[in-house]
Amino acid sequence: MNVDRVIWIMRKEALEVLRDRRALLGAVLFPLIFMPFASQLFMIGMSPAIAKYKIAVVNNDTGTLGGLIVQMFMMTNGTEVVLLNAVPADIEQKLAGSTYDVAMIFPSDFSSNITSGLQSRVNAMVYPGSTRSFMALSVFEQIIYSFEKVLVAQRLTSVQLSPEFINPIDLSVRNVGKEGAQESSPFGFMSAFFLVISAFSSMLGIGLEKSVGEKDKGTLEALLASPASRREILVGKLLSLLPFGLLSLVATIVGLVIGGFIGSMITGQVAGGIQVISFDSSYLPIMLVIAPIFLVQAAALILLVGFFAKTLKEAQTYTSVVTVVLSFGTMFVFFLPAYISKWICLVPIVGIAILQSFYVSEGFSAFVLSAVLIQIMYVALLLTLALRVMKAERLVTASA
Amino acid sequence: MHVTHEYYNLKGGSQSNRIGNMQADAASVVTKNLVKDFGKLRAVNGLSFEVRAGEVVGLLGPNGAGKTTTIRILSTLLQPTSGEASVLGHDVVAEPEKVRSSEGIVFENTGLYGKLTGSENLEYYGHLYGMDGHALQSRVQELLKVVGLSERAGDKVQDFSRGMKQRLAIARALLHDAPVLILDEPTASLDVPSARSVRDLIKTTTASERKATILCTHNMLEAQYLCTRVVIINKGMKVAEGTPEELERMSDTHGLEDVFLQLVRSEAQP
Q1: What mean pLDDT do residues B30-46 have?
Q2: Which chain A residues have a beta carbon less than 8 Å from that of B74?
Q3: One domain for residues B170 and B187
Q4: Is A394 touching B (CB cutoff 8 A)?
Q5: Separation between Cα atoms, residue B148 and residue B27, nearest integer Å
Q6: Which chain A residue lies closest to B97 (C-alpha atoms)?
Q7: What average pLDDT score do residues B147-160 get?
Q8: Mean pLDDT of all residues in chain B?
Q9: How many domains does chain B have?
């Protein structure tokens, strides 16, 4: 392989991208601005500190306990209680439209049942399509639980029993995370996305332009007829893609740091604060390992598809499927049990993107190192496949 | 009229004579019984011809005759199914890089990079051909002058007219001073003045620098003007070969277009 030719191919490809403002905007501005702020907005939007949970209460209780619980609601940060005389006829629409996040109905015998030692019931109405509805319900459940504990303690004391009599085990929860871990924990979840969405997406547009785009524009034949071998062309194009993927990734992380800082400044002033996504440096060692592997895998896959497809349109059809699979695959794998998601670490591209989560729990364990080695093997496999596609007659004969 | 390969193979002579000629004046491009199949379709069927230095050999044929496939084999983009093809003695299958280094090619689509300037396009290919430094710079300037693009050298190619792009593509083909030029429809869709300047450039360069030039064209007047010899192919096979005058005389027609039509039509008859 002639290294000079590879360098010249790389330089020319990079020069073309640098002269294409759209490609640069996609590689830098999108991850720098859109991704982190969209993520912060998601976290902020879910937080009750910015938009309080609206709880509609219909208190029919003839006693005082219902009112006491309602007062506890009112005193809770992030909740807004709206007292109603009766359940509105259009409660379903009001819950669906977020006029209320949850509705509570205290029956007339709520207090009397409790004081009689019977079980009392509170009716809660939620809307299944609303995440906030269920989050508001969880706030309500915590209050009911606290209230219930006080009631039980009073009942036990009245019969000369200590509360520990029916609550013999005390679950002590200790946060062992380092300082700021709460803020950074979403980073682990989101960083795999950032790899897939930012780096992959920015390389995708450029990579297709460098492969099937050359077919579309008719420049590929002349290049293939030059002394540069197909291996040199592939390597040159692949290497030219990597800086833009890396740039995109760095832009995302920089955007996260800025977004997290601004988010903390804004939301820190709100009572209770908001969990913002900040860069977590504990992921840095594994990111330095997996980012290059991910970028090479992604670049090789993009060029493989790009050189295989006859037209840009055909390539976009393939890559849209690939992007959806990668995005959703990366998202859903976090909801799987660890013993399943561990196996997914052995899948190319998605696997390398989620590997960092296991690094945080295991460090550079035998599993993590094996997975890294397997992912490096995928690099070789994808490059071999891409080279085969480049050497196939189809590359020259298949055109629009 | 029944036309056979042997009848119109006026220049080649017998196999032994050809070998004798090659020793005296070795052909720069040689194809022997070249065959190329795409699945069940035989695109090139036993094609043999030679091109010597200083010659412009026209490869003429209707659409689908196998011209582009032949050019792609000669430029090592495709491998032949059987038969041989060589450029300056280098086999297209065994020594593809040496073959490519020996050729300057102009494809029908110019294959220039729109976001690069005229001189950057030439410099890029110059580097791929192993040129560098002052030699490359002066060669680029020289060729830009030859093709009349010196003043537009710093402009992006996407802003060039079709004729300017075609002239730049020819400059790219001449860049590394390759002994063999392969030109596929170099004047297609050019206006009359641009086409004329490109033709003159081909004629002058081939004669003065003794290039072995293969010209694919549908323009019979162009072939008549430029070609020292013509190979007419149809359905992948050579149906005639000779100088335009020889072909006119033998087919008793006037002009290469009539020769071409007569040969292609007679081949189409059962």
Answers
A1: 92
A2: none
A3: no
A4: no
A5: 32
A6: A227
A7: 91
A8: 84
A9: 2
> Which residues numbered 69-88 in B keep a CB inside 8 Å of some CB on A?
72, 75-79
Identify the residue among B41, B44, B77, B159 best suited for mutation to test binding to A, counting A beta carbons within 10 A and taking the highest: B77
Residue pairs spanning A and B at CB distance below 8 A: 75
Instruction: List CB contacts (< 8 A) between B105 and chain A.
Output: 222, 225
Give me the torsion for CA of A177, A182, A184, A188, rounded to 10°. Answer: 80
pLDDT band at A184 (very low <50, low <70, confident <90, very high): very low
pLDDT at A202: 84
pLDDT classification of A141: cutoffs 50, 70, 90: confident
Domain containing B69: what range? 5-102+179-268
Q: Residue A177: pLDDT above 60?
A: no
B chain contacts of residue A221, beta-carbon cutoff 8 Å: 72, 75, 77, 107, 109, 111
Q: End-to-end CA distance of chain A, in Å?
A: 31
Q: What is the amino acid identity at position B119? A: S
Contact A182, A191 (CB under 8 A): no
Using one digit for the tens of pLDDT, what is the confidence trace for B155-183? Answer: 999 999 888 898 899 899 989 989 999 99
Answer whether residue B95 is part of any domain: yes
- In the predicted structure, residue A320 carries a pLDDT above the cut 80: yes
Give A194-246 as a DSSP string: IIIIIIIHHHHHHHHHHTHHHHHHT-HHHHHTSS--HHHHHHHHHHHHHHHHH
Query: For residue B9, what pLDDT is reported?
Result: 39
Minimal Cα–Cα distance from B75 to chain A, Å?
6
Q: What is the pLDDT of residue B8?
A: 36
Asked if B51 and B144 sit in the same domain, the reply is no
Q: Is A399 on the interface with B (CB under 8 A)?
A: no
What is the homologous superfamily of the domain A53-162 according to CATH? Answer: abc type-2 transporter like domain (3.40.1710.10)
Q: Does residue B106 register a pLDDT over 80?
A: yes
Q: Determine the Cα–Cα distance for residues B170 and B150; give it in Å rounded to an integer.
A: 14
Beta-carbon separation of B116 and A16 below 8 A: yes
The predicted pLDDT at position B16 comes to 37
Q: Which residues of B touch A5 (CB under 8 A)?
A: 127-128
Cα–Cα nearest to A191, from A300, A296, A302, A278: A278
Chain A contact set for B77 (CB, 8 A): 221, 224-225, 396
